[in-house]
Amino acid sequence: MNILNKLKSLSVFYWNHLQWIPSHVIIQGNEIADALAKEGANDASVPSEPLTYSELLSRAKRRNKTNWL
């Protein structure tokens, strides 16, 4: 219920949209998100400050570019 309370408090300032994404279905970007989530779960180091959206996007692009090459 804590998540619902957080979403409710955020909805005062932001519009929230939750959408169910089925697994095991080819959805653009889903594989990248899954790989990053698994990597994050296995990473023992936790950043002291939360990442900004732009930093997260930059890291994902850099990782994707590295994997592509």
UniProtKB/TrEMBL annotation:
GO terms for molecular function: nucleic acid binding; RNA-DNA hybrid ribonuclease activity. Residues 1-42 form the RNase H type-1 domain. InterPro entries: RNaseH-like_sf, RNaseH_domain, RNaseH_sf. Gene3D superfamilies: Ribonuclease H-like superfamily/Ribonuclease H (3.30.420.10). This is RNase H type-1 domain-containing protein. It comes from Araneus ventricosus (Orbweaver spider).
